[in-house]
């Protein structure tokens, strides 16, 4: 049998060196080991934060040809054959569950409606659906009215139209659920509502394919966008629907009745005022309206 005496000799020297350390020195080495592990963990968290910050500063930079504050959805770019859009870490832009106009062709206007109209009242809080960076804050008299466009790291751009007020500025980084505007009736609108669009490289996608406003949830963890020779083709995929055993429980909601306050609702729903406030992004002093929808679970 052949032995590597040189390696054996080196190992013996290292062992003897450690054994020859004073007891206090050996204790120091022993204490240093868990510190090194903690430092590596801290470095890993810091790196993740750094990557996350970069993704928000330059969202989906590998997909979009440029960054501008002018055009809401005009891109001269070849669509990828397939792209997996991450819908996790979302926030519903409004707790309202009432859809007043669906996505699709409108015979009365003889044109396509590229988003969903959700009933909100003037002054209702509108929130960012995902974390991202505000690309456009503008006004369009014969269209969106006061509107906001946000680009997200998952490749989507979301558009929020007919606002009474915009609460963010262009190039501002926002987190999912952060208030960005107030519901309104500006632009080409016949009543207060939120016009909500989801687009991928300028291509409109039916928001109902991804957002279930009645359940206040997304339709799945991911959405698969497929294109065919440059034309948008929205394809359902098994990853778009969560398997029933692991499906996310649907939120339970309560419709506010006249005279009810947060304490009364919390008692009826078997929860607390603090939880109601957290789930709905409101405070204890928020004035409730009859018919308003509140999540309580």
UniProtKB/TrEMBL annotation:
Entry annotated with the keyword Signal: yes
InterPro entries: Cell_wall_metabolism_enzyme (IPR050570), Dup_hybrid_motif (IPR011055), LysM (IPR018392), LysM_dom_sf (IPR036779), M23ase_b-sheet_dom (IPR016047)
Pfam families in alphabetical order: LysM, Peptidase_M23
Gene3D superfamilies for this protein: Glucose Permease (Domain IIA), LysM domain
UniProt keyword terms in alphabetical order: Signal
Start and end residues of each LysM domain: 252-296
Keyword Signal: yes
Domain of life: Bacteria
Signal peptide: 1-25
GO terms for MF: metalloendopeptidase activity
The protein, known as: Peptidase, M23 family
Source organism of this protein record: Paraprevotella xylaniphila YIT 11841
């Amino acid at each position: 049998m052949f032995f590597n005496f040189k390696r054996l000799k080196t190992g013996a020297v290292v062992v003897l060196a450690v054994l020859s350390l004073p007891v206090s020195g050996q204790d120091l080495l022993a204490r240093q080991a868990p510190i090194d592990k903690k430092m590596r963990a801290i470095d890993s968290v810091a790196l993740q934060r750094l990557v996350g910050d970069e993704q928000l500063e330059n969202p989906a930079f590998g997909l979009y040809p440029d960054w501008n504050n002018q055009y809401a959805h005009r891109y001269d770019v070849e669509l990828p054959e397939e792209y997996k859009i991450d819908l996790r870490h979302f926030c519903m832009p409004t707790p309202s569950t009432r859809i007043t106009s669906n996505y699709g062709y409108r015979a009365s206007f003889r044109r396509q409606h590229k988003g969903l109209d959700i009933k909100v009242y003037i002054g209702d809080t509108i929130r960012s659906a995902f974390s991202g960076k505000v690309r456009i804050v503008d006004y369009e008299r014969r269209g969106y009215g006061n509107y906001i466009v946000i680009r997200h790291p998952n490749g989507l751009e979301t558009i929020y139209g007919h606002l009474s007020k915009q609460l963010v500025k262009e190039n501002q980084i926002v987190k999912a659920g952060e208030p960005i505007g107030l519901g309104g009736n500006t632009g080409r609108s016949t009543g207060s509502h939120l016009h909500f669009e989801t687009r991928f490289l300028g291509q409109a996608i039916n928001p109902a394919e991804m957002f279930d406003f009645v359940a206040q949830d997304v339709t799945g963890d991911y959405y698969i966008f497929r294109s065919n020779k440059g034309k948008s083709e929205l394809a359902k995929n098994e990853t778009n629907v969560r398997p029933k055993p692991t499906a996310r429980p649907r939120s339970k909601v309560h419709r506010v009745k006249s005279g009810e306050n947060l304490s009364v609702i919390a008692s009826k729903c078997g929860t607390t005022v603090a939880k109601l406030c957290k789930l709905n992004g409101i405070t204890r002093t928020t004035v409730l309206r009859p018919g308003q929808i509140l999540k309580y679970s």
